[in-house]
Design goal:
Radius of gyration: 16 Å
Distance between the termini: 20 Å
CATH topology: Glutaredoxin
Number of helices: 5
Number of domains: 1
Largest sheet: 7 strands, mixed
Number of strands: 9
Strand content: 15-25%
Structural class: alpha+beta
Helix content: 25-40%
Shape: globular
Order of helices and strands: HEEEHEHEHEEEEH
Protein backbone atom coordinates (compact mmCIF):
# COMPACT_ATOMS: atom_id res chain seq x y z
CA UNK A 1 0.00 0.00 0.00
CA UNK A 2 1.38 3.39 -0.92
CA UNK A 3 2.12 5.88 1.81
CA UNK A 4 -0.56 8.26 0.48
CA UNK A 5 -3.28 5.58 0.50
CA UNK A 6 -2.17 4.44 3.93
CA UNK A 7 -2.34 7.95 5.38
CA UNK A 8 -5.71 8.67 3.77
CA UNK A 9 -7.27 5.45 4.98
CA UNK A 10 -5.79 5.89 8.45
CA UNK A 11 -7.18 9.42 8.62
CA UNK A 12 -10.62 8.18 7.58
CA UNK A 13 -10.58 5.48 10.24
CA UNK A 14 -9.45 7.81 12.98
CA UNK A 15 -12.13 10.32 11.98
CA UNK A 16 -14.62 7.58 12.83
CA UNK A 17 -13.03 7.06 16.22
CA UNK A 18 -15.52 5.33 18.46
CA UNK A 19 -15.87 6.21 22.10
CA UNK A 20 -18.41 4.58 24.37
CA UNK A 21 -21.77 6.32 24.50
CA UNK A 22 -22.14 5.55 28.19
CA UNK A 23 -20.26 4.09 31.12
CA UNK A 24 -21.83 0.64 30.68
CA UNK A 25 -19.26 -2.17 30.62
CA UNK A 26 -20.62 -4.23 27.73
CA UNK A 27 -17.82 -6.71 28.26
CA UNK A 28 -19.85 -8.03 31.19
CA UNK A 29 -22.98 -8.58 29.07
CA UNK A 30 -23.58 -12.28 28.50
CA UNK A 31 -24.21 -13.30 24.89
CA UNK A 32 -24.45 -16.77 23.31
CA UNK A 33 -21.81 -18.15 20.92
CA UNK A 34 -22.41 -20.33 17.87
CA UNK A 35 -22.04 -23.45 20.04
CA UNK A 36 -24.80 -22.29 22.40
CA UNK A 37 -22.39 -21.40 25.23
CA UNK A 38 -22.40 -18.20 27.28
CA UNK A 39 -19.82 -15.68 26.06
CA UNK A 40 -18.66 -12.36 27.46
CA UNK A 41 -16.64 -9.86 25.46
CA UNK A 42 -14.43 -9.18 28.48
CA UNK A 43 -13.05 -12.72 28.04
CA UNK A 44 -11.11 -11.25 25.09
CA UNK A 45 -9.22 -8.64 27.15
CA UNK A 46 -5.52 -8.80 26.37
CA UNK A 47 -6.20 -9.41 22.67
CA UNK A 48 -6.85 -7.05 19.79
CA UNK A 49 -10.38 -7.75 18.58
CA UNK A 50 -11.96 -7.39 15.16
CA UNK A 51 -15.60 -6.78 16.03
CA UNK A 52 -18.13 -7.15 13.22
CA UNK A 53 -21.83 -6.37 13.47
CA UNK A 54 -23.98 -8.01 10.81
CA UNK A 55 -26.59 -10.62 10.06
CA UNK A 56 -26.60 -13.94 8.26
CA UNK A 57 -29.34 -13.02 5.77
CA UNK A 58 -27.41 -10.00 4.50
CA UNK A 59 -27.09 -10.39 0.74
CA UNK A 60 -24.12 -8.14 -0.01
CA UNK A 61 -22.21 -6.09 2.55
CA UNK A 62 -21.90 -8.49 5.49
CA UNK A 63 -20.38 -11.35 3.44
CA UNK A 64 -17.84 -8.92 1.98
CA UNK A 65 -16.94 -7.63 5.45
CA UNK A 66 -16.62 -11.19 6.77
CA UNK A 67 -14.39 -12.13 3.82
CA UNK A 68 -12.23 -9.10 4.58
CA UNK A 69 -11.92 -10.15 8.23
CA UNK A 70 -11.12 -13.72 7.14
CA UNK A 71 -8.35 -12.47 4.84
CA UNK A 72 -6.95 -10.28 7.60
CA UNK A 73 -6.92 -13.24 10.02
CA UNK A 74 -5.03 -15.34 7.47
CA UNK A 75 -2.46 -12.55 7.08
CA UNK A 76 -2.20 -12.25 10.86
CA UNK A 77 -1.35 -15.93 11.30
CA UNK A 78 1.92 -15.19 13.15
CA UNK A 79 0.02 -13.02 15.64
CA UNK A 80 -3.18 -15.12 15.84
CA UNK A 81 -2.88 -15.95 19.55
CA UNK A 82 -3.13 -12.20 20.28
CA UNK A 83 -5.98 -11.43 17.84
CA UNK A 84 -9.65 -12.42 17.99
CA UNK A 85 -12.52 -11.87 15.60
CA UNK A 86 -16.15 -11.70 16.68
CA UNK A 87 -19.34 -11.50 14.62
CA UNK A 88 -22.34 -10.09 16.55
CA UNK A 89 -25.75 -10.38 14.97
CA UNK A 90 -28.06 -7.40 14.55
CA UNK A 91 -30.91 -9.82 13.73
CA UNK A 92 -31.55 -12.06 16.75
CA UNK A 93 -35.00 -13.10 15.47
CA UNK A 94 -33.41 -15.13 12.67
CA UNK A 95 -29.81 -15.58 13.85
CA UNK A 96 -29.79 -18.31 16.47
CA UNK A 97 -26.57 -20.19 17.32
CA UNK A 98 -27.16 -22.91 14.70
CA UNK A 99 -27.79 -20.38 11.91
CA UNK A 100 -24.70 -18.38 12.88
CA UNK A 101 -22.57 -21.52 13.05
CA UNK A 102 -23.63 -22.54 9.52
CA UNK A 103 -22.97 -19.00 8.26
CA UNK A 104 -19.48 -18.85 9.79
CA UNK A 105 -18.47 -22.09 8.06
CA UNK A 106 -18.01 -19.98 4.91
CA UNK A 107 -15.33 -17.87 6.60
CA UNK A 108 -12.20 -18.15 8.74
CA UNK A 109 -12.58 -20.82 11.45
CA UNK A 110 -11.25 -18.44 14.09
CA UNK A 111 -14.29 -16.17 14.03
CA UNK A 112 -16.66 -16.43 17.00
CA UNK A 113 -20.32 -15.74 16.26
CA UNK A 114 -22.62 -14.24 18.88
CA UNK A 115 -26.33 -13.80 19.40
CA UNK A 116 -28.35 -13.44 22.56
CA UNK A 117 -31.34 -11.90 24.19
CA UNK A 118 -32.49 -8.77 22.36
CA UNK A 119 -31.80 -6.55 25.38
CA UNK A 120 -28.24 -7.87 25.69
CA UNK A 121 -27.60 -7.37 21.97
CA UNK A 122 -29.16 -3.90 22.15
CA UNK A 123 -26.80 -2.95 25.01
CA UNK A 124 -23.73 -4.01 23.02
CA UNK A 125 -24.89 -2.46 19.72
CA UNK A 126 -25.86 0.78 21.46
CA UNK A 127 -22.47 0.98 23.14
CA UNK A 128 -20.81 0.96 19.71
CA UNK A 129 -23.49 3.24 18.25
CA UNK A 130 -24.69 0.58 15.83
CA UNK A 131 -28.19 1.61 14.81
CA UNK A 132 -30.37 -1.21 13.53
CA UNK A 133 -33.36 -0.52 11.31
CA UNK A 134 -35.42 -3.25 9.72
CA UNK A 135 -36.18 -2.55 6.07
CA UNK A 136 -39.13 -4.52 4.63
CA UNK A 137 -38.54 -6.25 1.31
CA UNK A 138 -41.01 -6.68 -1.52
CA UNK A 139 -42.65 -10.07 -1.21
CA UNK A 140 -42.08 -10.27 2.54
CA UNK A 141 -39.02 -10.62 4.67
CA UNK A 142 -36.69 -7.85 5.72
CA UNK A 143 -33.10 -6.66 5.73
CA UNK A 144 -31.42 -4.89 8.64
CA UNK A 145 -29.68 -1.61 7.90
CA UNK A 146 -26.88 -1.25 10.43
CA UNK A 147 -24.30 1.15 9.02
CA UNK A 148 -20.58 0.67 9.71
CA UNK A 149 -19.91 -2.78 10.95
CA UNK A 150 -16.18 -3.40 11.58
CA UNK A 151 -14.42 -2.06 14.66
CA UNK A 152 -10.99 -2.69 16.11
CA UNK A 153 -10.83 -2.99 19.89
CA UNK A 154 -7.54 -2.56 21.71
CA UNK A 155 -6.25 -5.03 24.30
CA UNK A 156 -8.22 -3.25 27.04
CA UNK A 157 -11.47 -3.82 25.13
CA UNK A 158 -11.88 -0.21 24.01
CA UNK A 159 -13.04 0.50 20.46
CA UNK A 160 -10.34 2.52 18.75
CA UNK A 161 -11.18 2.46 15.05
CA UNK A 162 -14.18 1.97 12.80
CA UNK A 163 -12.79 0.51 9.59
CA UNK A 164 -14.38 1.93 6.47
CA UNK A 165 -16.07 -0.55 4.13
CA UNK A 166 -14.07 -1.38 1.03
CA UNK A 167 -10.59 -0.85 2.43
CA UNK A 168 -8.36 -3.87 1.76
CA UNK A 169 -7.64 -6.56 4.32
CA UNK A 170 -4.04 -5.34 4.37
CA UNK A 171 -5.27 -2.10 5.88
CA UNK A 172 -6.93 -4.03 8.72
CA UNK A 173 -3.74 -6.01 9.25
CA UNK A 174 -1.69 -2.80 9.50
CA UNK A 175 -4.06 -1.32 12.05
CA UNK A 176 -4.16 -4.49 14.14
CA UNK A 177 -0.37 -4.67 14.21
CA UNK A 178 -0.24 -1.09 15.51
CA UNK A 179 -2.44 -2.10 18.44
CA UNK A 180 -0.34 -5.19 19.09
CA UNK A 181 2.84 -3.10 19.44
Amino acid sequence: MTRRVWLLSLLCCWLLLIRPAAALDVGAVTLIDQEGRDFRLDSLRGQVVLLVFGFTHCPHICPVEMARVSAALRDLAPERERVSAVFITVDPRRDNPEVIKAYLEQFHPGITGLTGAPDALDAVADQYRVKRVEQPMAGGGYLVDHGSSLYILDREGQAQVAVLPGLPAGHIVSLVRQFLD
